[in-house]
Design a protein that fits this description.
It contains six helices and nine strands, in the order αβββααβαβαβββαβ. By secondary structure, it is of the alpha/beta class. It has a single domain, classed as Glutaredoxin, CATH 3.40.30. β1 and β2 form a beta hairpin.
Amino acid sequence: MNRLELRMNRALQVLTVLAVLATLCLPASAAAVIGQPAPAFRTPDLSGKPVSLADFKGKTVVLEWHNFGCPFVQKHYRSGNMQALQKKYAAEVVWLSINSTHPGHPDYQAPQVLEKELARFGATPTRFLMDESGAVGLAYGAKVTPHMYVIDPTGKLVYNGAIDDKRSANPDDVKTSRNLVVAALEDLRAGRPISNPVNVPYGCTIKYK
């Protein structure tokens, strides 16, 4: 391993530690409750068309809190992991990516920019939603990107937490991680209780107003 690789690994380790500490220090907020109806919402997609959770009644829904500027989000897009999941479950799952970054924050990206980034990465969520007010994120208690939720066809929340069990920003770690969202979706598909319904999320703090 050369010096550049060592420096990059050290930087990723520092980012991971900071992300965990930031998650633990976040102020309390409202949170969706496992086994209870998922909070209703209505917010525009990238084209400005309003999208409601009620539009997908009777379907399994995955919510993915998103920010392309976050190294932990990039981990799952640069590795192709998130896109692969979106395609794998496209026939049976409504995949909603949600950006709750406030427009006044430097991390904010306008819909036109996000459309180009999604195309560049080959991402195919069912819809990409703009939650500029932060109302949707706060209703769910979303803390970081990526923060993942799974809603079953009855409208109840069945998963809340991290996408996997490797709390790092290194794309190579995707190969050896256990994907907790996949585990939840497979339990749901098989009619089993979700074996691990709550996990502490890791990533970049969401830049609410």
